[in-house]
Amino acid sequence: MKSALIRWGIVGTGHAREFAKALSALPDARLIAVTSRSLERAEEFGREFHAPYSYDNVASFAANPEIDVVYIGSSPMFHAAHALECLRQGKSILVEKPFTIDEAEATAVYALAGEKGLFCMEALWSRFLPATREIAVWLEEGRIGEVRQVIADFGFRAEWDSKSRYFDPHQRGGSLLDVGVYSLAFTAMALGPVPVGISAQATLCPTGVDEQTAMILKYAGGGLALLSCANRTRSPHRACIIGTEGRIEIDGFVWAHGATLFRDSEEPLVIEPKLPLPAYSYQALESMRCIRAGLVESPILPSFEVIERMRAMDEIRRQIGVIYSV
Predict the structure, then answer these.
(1) If both were cysteines, with which of 187, 196, 276, 306 could 225 make a disulfide (CB 3.0 to 4.6 Å apart)?
(2) CA count, 13 A, side-chain hemisphere, 249
(3) Cis link prior to 98 (omega < 30° from 0)?
(4) Distances (CA, A) of 239 to 110, 117, 184, 255
(5) Among 17, 18, 1, which residue's Cα sits nearest to residue 67?
(6) How far apart are CA 271 and CA 282, in angstroms?
(7) For 155-171, what is the mean pLDDT?
(8) Alpha carbon of 125 to those of 133, 187, 203, 207, 212: distances in Å?
(9) Are 154 and 128 in contact, with CB atoms under 8 Å apart?
(10) CB neighbours of residue 198 within 10 Å
């Protein structure tokens, strides 16, 4: 892209405020347009973040020629439809996690992005934080030897409401798609994206979606991942990557609240959390870097990994008995 300024649009105002704040911290990014199911909400959001265009439907929004790239922050059940509409109208996309509901949707979105030659990435913000990137370097350098095990949990307690997005199957609720995605993505960074075996157990809430899920994943080299997620149970939010020559411990691993590298007979090496920019800014920076470089996906979070993760989550849902109606 020749222009130094990259112009953003946002689909869905319900949970996009943090992303809009992140864009406002970047001098080479500008929020141009926003769409919501309610024009009133879109206009209110647009006024708050100085976006000149507001819409109440995605088709009209995506037709705006001034938009370069779209952040899709709508309900996950609409991610695929909104992503495909924006791609059809020539817009690059950054799609909030979970990228889609299942593997089939993810494959269709990436296929169209490739066909159109447009940038497409999942907005898994934690993978782009400075501390997470440094952990990835440690792994690439073999600082803990061969990775043999990953342990990670993410659980929070939401108040029970059968109609909320956390528990409503019609909104594709449940803890796996909402927060289990973080543990699975963290594991992929350490052990790779393709498990050769998956075993899962869950507790389902009265609406039929998972309120807590435990997963064991096995990888071709013999590595294991022990993962859990929950939306009715608070957990420590810790992760540990264990190798043959040491381990990496991360408190608040989704937010990358620092990390510590332990190696035998050596002093621990500590990464302190350093966030000179809002946390969501880093995924926007990576998106803009790729767009300017003419890339259709990011090497940090490529399409292959996202599709394989969606496939794994399809299998986990099959095992625990969570079925979403069409």
Answers:
(1) 187
(2) 8
(3) yes
(4) 30, 36, 11, 11
(5) 1
(6) 17
(7) 95
(8) 11, 15, 28, 29, 23
(9) no
(10) 17
| Residues near 186 by beta carbon (within 8 Å), at least 6 away in sequence | 126, 150, 152, 239, 253
Sign of the dihedral defined by the CA atoms of residues 20, 251, 137, 150, in that order: negative
Is the CB of residue 48 less than 8 Å from the CB of residue 29? no
d(CA 145, CA 149): 12
Q: What is the pLDDT of residue 319?
A: 98
Which strand (E) or helix (H) includes residue 86? helix 79-88
Helices then strands, counting H and E runs in the chain, come out as: 10, 14
Q: Which of 286, 285, 297 is nearest to 112 (CA)?
A: 297
Tokens of 220: 């071709």
Q: Is the pLDDT of residue 318 over 70?
A: yes
47: which residues sit within 8 A by CB, 6+ positions away?
none
Which spans in 268-326 are helix H? Answer: 281-293, 303-320
Q: Name the pLDDT band for 124 (thresholds 50, 70, 90).
A: very high
Higher pLDDT, 47 or 273: 47
Structure tokens at 20: 């809009």
pTM of the model: 0.95
Place of tokens 């996690």: 97
